[in-house]
Amino acid sequence: MVGGISVDQIVTALVAVIAVPLVLFGYIVVGEQIIERLPERIQLWIRPYFWALPAIGFAGLFMVYPLLRTVVISFRNGADTDWVGLANYQYFFTFPDTLTSLRNSILWLVFYTFFAVFLGLVVAILLDRVRYETLAKIAIFLPVPISAVAASIIWKFMFDYQPPGQPQTGTLNAVIGLAHHDPVAWLVNSTTNNGALIFVGVWTAVGFCMVILSASLKAISTEVLEAARIDGANEFQIVRLVVTPLLWPTITVVGTTMIINALKTFDLVYVMTNGAYNTDVIATQMFSQLQHNHNSRAAAVGVVLFIAIVPLLIVNIRRFQQQEEQR
Amino acid sequence: MSTEQVTTRRQSAAAEGLSALSNLGYRLQRLPLHFIVIIFCAIWVIPTVGMVINSFRALSDMQSAGWWTTLFPPHGFTFASYQQVLNIEGVQPSIVTSILITIPATVIQLTVATMGAYAFAWMKFPGKNIFFIVIVGLMVVPIQMTLVPLLSFFKVLHLNGTIMSVWLAHTGFGLPFEVFLLRNYLGGLPREIFESAEVDGAGHAVRFLRIAVPMTLPAIASLVIFVFLGVWNDLLVALTFLGTSQFRPFTVMIAQLTTSFGGGWQFLTAAAVLQMALPLAVFIALQRYFVRGVTAGSVKG
What does the pLDDT look like over A185-231, one tens digit per residue? Predict the structure, then answer.
């Protein structure tokens, strides 16, 4: 049976919801009882590990261990019986399909990141100047809570294509039809499909960028802006020379998040085109390798993805260390 | 006198002298601004509205004319798509499965994370900094890095194809960020409260359960929303571990139906509306917490 509910699953879920907090509660109370009876020196030594253990254990078992395993698997053959050196990577960097996915991920990285952050900044600045700001913000933020799966169906309708001469059911083709332009098969045509997918990604992300940038924008003191105005700067100069530099730290934080999102993109592409017509990205490529039981190739794709993220990881740790020094 | 006062004075003086004509001129100047903002909002709202309208139309109508034609009579609204979607075998159970995945995953993550965060915020131990730097680094690691080994790991644990596998994968992936955020929040609480409790003889268990947890509730609430919706909307993890299982959550069901239906996929609009109803309801009802929860997630992998 497909998608059945079994009573077992319901009971398991209920037990987990009640038992996990109870078990942790018991762990804390009983554990502390025992620790408090130990000599002072041992207490000081053992207590922090006792408290951190569940979190470190979970993260170690289901995050760190698999992460390291992935690296190992990427150097092994599909059945995990022998070492194959760099064969899986060689496959990734020479096979045309995987190279297409790499190219598309780079397109995502550049255009998705740029437009999400840029439009987020533009919207934040423009909305700051109108009285219906709150309402407009809700409109722009609306796609954020929507899942990529639902967003894909929303945009499949926007991009829908009927042959010329027939009534167009897709919003975009109906609009360009008003200008007597022939309908475009947005998701099939290989000159438009990656751009179309990236635009949907941007559509789901601008609200997020806007909210964060807007919060920093409000924190800029009005005196700074007034001083610039009195000095004769026009609005464009103020945005370019005063606002943008002041927002730069926030822009880099938002940009980092967008780069990670771009590299991880999976859902939108999977649902809208399933990688057809040269729209594959790294994550969908990895998933299809997994589905064909090419585990070690999938692992190699994962490692490539990870290597792309490493610079951001370092930036993130640096930023954290700076913040710690200021604490 | 501050510059602000100068300008307000100038503005009020200007306002007095402002004739109706120059007022009009000012408004005309701002027309392009309003125009751009309204176009922008339209592009961001219309696709969703269009799809919601489509979900209340007959399949044949969706295939023969755009959603906007329904705005004029005869509307011909119908629940046919909803009936059709809900009658597909497995769709109704998949909604239940989504709930059975989401609630435990959220509860497990946040209870474990809160406890770990307490240790990192208020205790000293050797290696703490290194542990925490690892946590900060793990925040940006994509979940794709863990999928392959977890598949065989869950096979060993006999958890393959169960909802538990998805809880555990989400927990491992979500913990670093949650520990990080809660540790920062907990670390910001006033030290005196914990010290005076200690003087009064309260052990760590009491300090954690009676002081730290209640005071952290605002942060936990934002995280609940963030984690809950992240898991509810997740496709990749569920597809990897439950894609061929008998227990598929709603997102997997919709994605698989979309890719398998050639011509008649349009009725799936109803499924999409049902799937996004919960996140949108949470967003509209708890706007402030919602935005805080989502934006707290910046620099989250």
Answer: 888 888 889 999 999 999 999 999 999 999 888 888 888 888 888 88
Residue A105, class by beta-carbon neighbours within 10 Å (0-12 exposed, 13-18 middle, 19+ buried)? buried
Q: B93: which chain A residues are within 8 Å (Cβ-Cβ)?
A: 3-5
CB contacts, 8 Å: A203 with chain B: 43-44, 47
Tell me whether residue B215 is exposed, middle or buried, using C-beta atoms within 10 angstroms of its C-beta: 0 to 12, 13 to 18, 19 or more.
middle
Task: List, as ranges, residues 120-159 from B with C-beta within 8 Å of A.
Answer: 120, 123-125, 128, 131, 133-153
* Whole-angstrom distance, CA of residue B108 vs CA of residue B113: 8
Residues A37-50: pLDDT tens digits? 888 888 888 889 99
> What pLDDT, on the 0 to 100 scale, is given for residue B11?
56
Q: Show the DSSP H helices in A191-243 as ranges.
A: 193-219, 222-230, 235-237
Q: Would you state the CATH architecture of domain A88-326?
A: Orthogonal Bundle (1.10)
Q: Is B221 on the interface with A (CB under 8 A)?
A: no
Residue A104 has pLDDT above 60, yes or no: yes
B296 pLDDT band, cuts 50/70/90, is low
The answer to whether the CB atoms of B41 and A64 lie below 8 A apart is: no
pLDDT band at B15 (very low <50, low <70, confident <90, very high): low
Q: Tell me which fold the domain B88-296 belongs to.
A: MetI-like fold (1.10.3720)
Do residues B295 and A212 lie in contact, with contact meaning Cβ atoms separated by under 8 Å? yes
Please give the ipTM for the structure prediction: 0.89
Chain A residues touching B264 at Cβ < 8 A: none
Cβ–Cβ gap B108/A16 under 8 Å: yes
Confidence of residue A2 (pLDDT cuts 50, 70, 90): very low
Going from N- to C-terminal start, the domains of chain B cover: 1-41, 88-296
CB nearest to A9's CB, from B151, B163, B172? B163
